[in-house]
Design goal:
alpha+beta; Alpha-Beta Plaits; 230 residues; two-stranded antiparallel ribbon; 7 helices
Length: 230
């Protein structure tokens, strides 16, 4: 059975977790995310500490006899780390005006916890390599991702006098000509007023200013706005 390591060795594991957590935390902090340097560092070090405790809590330096009467499973605490990070990650995910923010930050916290667990387990190369991979995915891959052409989903709100049937047909033709797909369409009409609100969820690739300018020029449309979904 593996003996209890010197305390200095355990401290070195925590220091490695500090380094790894700070690297990814600095990247999040630099981009103004709520879970930045301090949060990621604490997550990484905390996960490392809990791994150390789960692995060596039955060792008492100078008094260990080598006999353990109870079946112990160090992986139980490790599993609880993953569960706890799930709640922490949910706290940084924000749904705002139809869009979802914080998924990458939540994934970074979860990833950092795994790096910390590797540090606490006594691994050296693995957490360092994973930290570099995580840093590359947050920096280099972000530039690559921005160059990938992709469809975006947006909600387009329009308000018009009456039912605006003619303007609605023109708007649908505009979407069709520019290969903008209408995913869903809803409308509501004011009982005491003569206006109708239309809401489109559309998918495609277009220029925002051009779209809003064209819709605003259609007859009967008094108000137009759009919200990005993804």
């Amino acid at each position: 059975m593996v003996g209890y390591p010197y305390e200095a060795h355990l401290v070195l594991r925590l220091l490695l977790a500090v380094l790894c957590g700070a690297v990814l935390g600095y990247e999040r902090e630099r981009h103004g995310r709520s879970a930045g340097l301090r949060t990621n560092l604490l997550v990484c070090v905390g996960a490392a500490l809990m791994m150390i405790v789960s692995k060596y809590f039955y060792f008492k330096p100078g008094e260990f006899t080598g006999n353990i009467t109870t079946a112990l499973d160090p992986s139980r605490i490790a599993a609880q780390i993953v569960t706890g990070i799930g709640f922490l990650g949910a706290g940084v995910i924000i749904k705002e005006r139809g869009s979802i923010r914080g998924l990458t930050t939540a994934a970074t916290l979860w990833y950092n916890a795994g790096v910390g667990m590797a540090c606490g387990a006594g691994m050296i190369i693995l957490p360092i390599v994973c930290t570099l991979i995580g840093l590359a995915s947050l920096t280099a891959l972000k530039r690559v991702e921005s160059r990938i052409p992709r469809d975006s989903y947006k909600v387009v709100h329009v308000e018009c006098e009456g039912l605006g049937e003619q303007a609605l047909l023109e708007l649908k033709e505009y979407f069709t000509d520019r290969h903008i797909h209408i995913v869903t369409m809803n409308f509501s009409q004011h009982i005491k007023e003569t206006t109708t609100n239309y809401e489109f969820v559309v998918k495609g690739n277009w220029n925002d200013n051009e779209l809003l300018s064209h819709i605003s020029q259609l007859s009967n449309f008094e108000f137009v706005s759009q919200t990005r979904l993804s």
